[in-house]
Design goal:
With 432 residues, the chain is an all-alpha fold. 79% of the residues lie in helices and 0% in strands. The protein has a single domain, classed as Up-down Bundle (Growth Hormone, Chain: A). The two termini are 24 Å apart.
């Protein structure tokens, strides 16, 4: 990162820094133990991969629709209450996970953790647009958020292994404490700082949930993009769920050490390469960056499909390749949604991204049964073919965007709107 980027980050509003630092600590403690949850369920209850997949998938699917609705609520009533409620739900959920002793208790706690995340994340993401008017600075802040999440993801397993608490159920208590800290930080920010944009964005009228749904359903480019992103999350999520189940049931060498190494490589790759990749691709439109990421992701799926189970370093190499794809894809997906969202519907648009959970949460279910009955190679060959489908959807979305500009060149017909200055786009602002 160059000096100008650091200066932009230094000037971010305090409430944005609460989100950034909270994301760092929350995700770091989360990754001390969550990736090992499939191993815990297998060892504690002797569950099959299909059953473990069902437990993880159904809980996240329950939270997907709620996240969509809470995003719309934050547009109508403000971000504050939902941010506080979501983090408090996470505190309770991870406390329950730390002491759960039966399968039903695990299922309820996992569902609560998914609900908590779906309640607080859409308004938190929408707040970036509320508080950071400059598009290039906002993109940098969104990229930096993903960077910090992955720094936490890299340090979490390392610290957990160092102090001997990685892959232990009681470590969920540490995650609960981190979310309690985030809750207190939000409370302090709202009471002491009283940010000007803590309430609903006033650039547009409040809308009902039904009218919000109508607006979203008429945005064809947005719907195609959301569909493509759901599939992309479904493909990627197999690395965090199905792959771990596959390695566990296939008796891969040193499985806990292998999983820890994969998590470390995944997060470290993003930490060291995310901003160099951003700088390298800064002249490309967001759609083009995402297409490049999808090509890399497709090659990673092929590597997973043909890597011998006993080849320890082969799994690490494939993880590195997919991590490069992640460093390109996920931050740019957030930037893309931010640019599509009208100012008065940011929460609704980011709330719609909770539908990604249908892709993310269905991966353990589909992957578990596919591994159980067809094998891991069939699964990853299937995800390779899905990568090609997602690429086609993005090409289609790009063509829709171009044709919509050609069909309604508003600025060319009516000129500059009264009272609105034209904004010269910088290379980092290139959109779809």
């Amino acid at each position: 990162m160059d000096r100008q980027w650091w200066q932009s980050l230094y000037g971010l509003p305090p409430l944005i820094w609460v989100v950034l630092i909270g994301s760092f600590f929350g995700r770091g403690t989360y990754f001390m133990v969550w990736p090992f949850l499939a191993v815990m369920l297998h060892e504690k209850f002797s569950l099959t991969p299909g059953t473990i997949g069902a437990v993880l998938s159904i809980s996240a699917m329950c939270a997907a629709v709620l996240g969509f609705y809470t995003g719309a609520l934050s547009d109508r009533f403000g971000r504050k209450f939902l941010l506080l409620a979501g983090t408090l739900i996470n505190v309770f959920a991870f406390c329950c996970l730390a002491v759960a002793d039966s399968l039903s208790e695990f299922a309820v706690a996992i569902t609560l953790s998914a609900i908590g995340r779906s309640v607080w994340e859409p308004p938190a993401m929408a707040m970036f647009g509320d508080l950071i008017p400059d598009k290039s600075v906002r993109e940098l802040a969104l990229q930096f958020r993903y960077f910090l999440i992955n720094v936490g993801s890299a340090l979490g397993p390392m610290i957990g292994v160092w102090v001997g608490i990685s892959a232990q159920q009681t470590t969920f208590g540490v995650t609960a404490v981190s979310y309690l800290g985030l809750f207190i930080a939000f409370l302090w920010a709202f009471v002491v700082l009283r940010p000007a944009s803590e309430n609903r964005n006033n650039e547009g009228p409040a809308t009902s949930f039904a009218s919000t749904l109508r607006v979203l359903s008429q945005d064809t480019i947005f719907l195609v993009t959301i569909s493509a992103n759901i599939l992309a999350l479904f493909i990627y999520a197999h690395m965090d769920s199905s792959l771990i189940q596959y390695l566990t049931v296939s008796d891969a060498p040193r499985v806990v050490s292998l999983i820890s190494s994969m998590i470390l490589i995944n997060a470290s790759t993003i930490v060291f390469l995310q901003f160099p990749l951003l700088r390298f691709m800064r002249h490309l439109a967001v759609n083009q960056r995402i297409l490049i990421g999808l090509v890399v992701l497709a090659f990673g799926q092929l590597w997973f499909a043909f890597n011998p189970v006993q080849w320890f370093y082969g799994w690490l190499g494939a993880t590195f390749l997919i991590s490069i794809a992640e460093a390109i894809l996920f931050p740019n997906m957030s930037v893309q949604i931010d640019r599509m969202a009208p100012a008065n519907l940011r929460g609704s648009y980011f709330g719609a991204t909770s539908l990604y959970a249908f892709g993310w949460s269905s991966a353990p279910l589909v992957g578990g049964f596919t591994i159980q009955f067809l094998g891991g190679q069939v699964l990853f060959l299937g995800t390779f073919l899905l990568c090609l489908l997602v690429m086609l959807l993005y090409v289609y979305a790009g063509r829709l965007a171009v044709s919509s500009v050609i069909e309604s060149p508003i600025e060319e017909k009516v000129g500059k709107s009264p009272g609105v200055e034209s904004e010269k786009p910088t290379p980092v602002q290139s959109a779809v």
